[in-house]
Amino acid sequence: MSAWQALHAWLVDPFVQFGFMRRALAGAVALAAGAAPVGVFLVLRRMSLMGDAMSHAILPGVAAGYLLAGLSVPAMMAGGVFTGLAVALLSGLVTRLTPLREDASFAAFYLISLALGVTLVSLRGSSTDLMHVLFGTVLGMDDAALYMAAAVTTLTLGVLALIFRPLVYECFDPGFLRMQGRAGAWAHGAFLALVVLNLVGGFQVLGTLMVVGLMMLPAASARFWARSVGGQIALAMALAMVASAAGLLLSFHLDLPASPAIILAAGAVYLCSVAGGPRGGLWQGARRSRRRALAITGDMR
Amino acid sequence: MKRSGLGRGLRMALAALVTTAGLGTGAAALAAPVPVVASFSILGDMVREVGGENVSVTTLVGPDGDAHTYEPTPANVRELARARLLVVNGIDFETWLPRLTQAAGFKGTTVVAADGVKVRRFAGEEGHDAHGHDHDDGHAQGAGHDHGDHDHDHDHDHDHDHDHDHDEAGGGHHHVMDPHAWQDLRNAVIYVRNIARALAAVDPANAQAYGKRADAYVARLEALDARARATFGAIDPARRKVVSSHDAFGYFGDAYGVTFIPVEGLSTQGEPSAAEVARIIAQVRREKVPALFVENISSPRLVEQIARETGAKVGGTLYSDALSRPGQPGATYLGMFEWNVEQLAAALRR
Amino acid sequence: MSAAAPLLTLENADFGWGGQAVVRGVSGAFRAGTMTAVVGPNGVGKSTLMKGLAGALAPLAGAVRRHDDGRARVAWLPQRADLDLAFPLDVHDLVAMGAWRRTGAWRGLGAAEQARIDAAMARTGIAALARRRLDTLSGGQLQRALFARLLVQDADLLLLDEPFAAVDTETVHQLCRLLGELNREGRTVIAVLHDREVVRAYFGDTLALARADGAGRVQAWAPTPAALDGEAP
């Protein structure tokens, strides 16, 4: 078998032969397209940990939806959105009205949410159910799940296009839009809603724990390669999709569980970017300081 | 004349009243139900059948619960402390039990329901002793072993200690033995006999009642067993294959000649890899498995995906590790078993 | 000096954060078309006062009145520390922000706006830096860019919070001359400054704050020579 054929067998055949692989890829790619741009803004706005905390915050809502309506996706999504937004609002209030800063107040609320969520799921279900909520079932995506993922992504990209400019301005100079009306506040609110929406929409595919990985890791990686905001978004989307495919292939060939494999693939991309990315990567930095050192000694000669 | 008639009648009535009252309180004292704790819902149902109104049963892992990963609550500790008899499955099924009994300071009797059952191993597990010994050595340990002591010692010697560790005191043991012995009705008969014997030992006053109820129950179990054999016997052997998302039907499969192909391993917690799913699909396609079944405590999504891809039929729910809530077909052991048989037969017949 | 109409009147206003007043008892009026410098020691509450004037901070006591029915457009020049300079924007994007009031979130930058942006960058001497990333700019270059944005905003009231921190002298003078031009166009300028020489050279009025009785209070608010001479050393 020629090298080309071997490569084809390794990379393409699993998707050709098995419907569940195609669906898993479709679901993950759909999720990636929406989550990665949101992740880029989270990284740019220094809100990365908040994104992770949010993924825990939505858990009790998802759990409550599960408790009341079983594995009903609309119920779980509605619950997740509700508690996600509630936590965001409550921590914002606590930050505004008390001496506690945003990071601590948010941490407090999301920890409460996480414990509440685990309790709720354990009350009615088994730890299997908890596992499925936390880690998703990317290998079991039915039509409804695929439509849901596609709908979330379409909505996300649409809203992002609308709020792009005020979002960028608000990241860079928060006071500027505040002086000119309420546009900044609306943009910020819409963005938070998108974060929650993608986390909730993604929990079916990857689970609430892992979905934030697909949101953040490609975005953090893109920063080392692309210059502009648009460039980072495009690259983050591409990297997230590549990581999804790679993770599924790893799961297929190496018998690894699927959703962690996708996140590990994204993690590998991140590490490569940190090491060798042209904008701020470690290797680049080492080369530059060596060049600088040589230049200095050259001048001294 | 009348007065003496009345007087005598009155005296007799009074005597009758006093006697009845005396007997009544005496009987009441004797009739306090024995508090029994059963580890999970299937055992609880059996105890209720055998014990009737003479026992008051509390079940630890309730309907639709997962006994593999159960975490006892403080209420459980109280219930166990009050009990006089604890009924457990054994074969390492309840790994969380030793800590609970210790915490409760349980001083009553423990009966291992699977005592005397021929324990089955999982196929493909790296054995401590892979060849041939599978059925011989797999006896559950407990009081009242039937073999002569000789054989017993022999078995002890060659045997791998793990064979004898596997009862309720197991804890931390690698799951090589299949604990789901109740999926074979003949084993259920053994369970019932063990339970009846234990109840008679703890509450000798009602031993006869226990014996009678156990006999009646066993008769029903055996009748169902015969029906099940007939049903499956009538189905083409080539079609007697199912995919189920829980590896709990080993005994069932052995007893009635049905092959169960698992999607996930025994543990209900593992997330499957794409390779596993691909293998199952390949196998289902290759062997033309006609039906897939979904459990009441595992995720159905994966099984549905496999059904979609292979064209196999998705059957209804099967009950494996727990009874369902009251009002559903799986609320009693017999009901659950009958339901499983019907569902499987219907799917395989098509 | 002139009998111009008051634009902003303060009546015994207190400003502060979380219920604690930092600046107390400010009374007076900023007249339209004036250039006022706000001076005082560090931490006395100059920025707080500026935010109160901009309307971003409601007074804890007293009142702030605008005499223009809200028609005057306000432009705010932020402190360097309030900006996220690591954000991937270039100079052109920063200056283009000034067009927000006219374009909103969705309208593109037409030829007219683009011309305005180019003119602003030329006027502040940074036309060559249009595509440079913000984190590669020096202090002076960044201030020029922020001033260019101010120009594009085309506002009537200009509030500048420490515009000349970490800026070279040459740039300071150039930008002050620019402020003077804007002032002569009829715009009102209020700026927080530290350099007394610059204040004397360019700013007609001065508001001096000093700590007294546990808060910042107005020590002097008058034409510059009088205000600065009366200032405590």
Automatic annotation (TrEMBL), chain C:
Domain annotation ABC transporter: ranges: 8-232
Gene3D superfamilies the record matches: P-loop containing nucleotide triphosphate hydrolases (3.40.50.300)
Cited InterPro entries: AAA+_ATPase (IPR003593), ABC_transporter-like_ATP-bd (IPR003439), ABC_transporter-like_CS (IPR017871), AztA-like (IPR047748), Metal_Ion_Import_ABC (IPR050153), P-loop_NTPase (IPR027417)
Stored SMART domains: AAA
PROSITE patterns named among the record's database cross-references: ABC_TRANSPORTER_1, ABC_TRANSPORTER_2
SUPFAM superfamilies, per the entry: P-loop containing nucleoside triphosphate hydrolases (SSF52540)
Family annotation (Pfam families): ABC_tran
Record's keyword terms, sorted: ATP-binding, Cell membrane, Membrane, Nucleotide-binding, Transport
A GO term, aspect molecular function: ATP binding
Superkingdom of the source species: Bacteria
Family of the protein in this entry: Belongs to the ABC transporter superfamily.
Protein's name in the database: ABC transporter
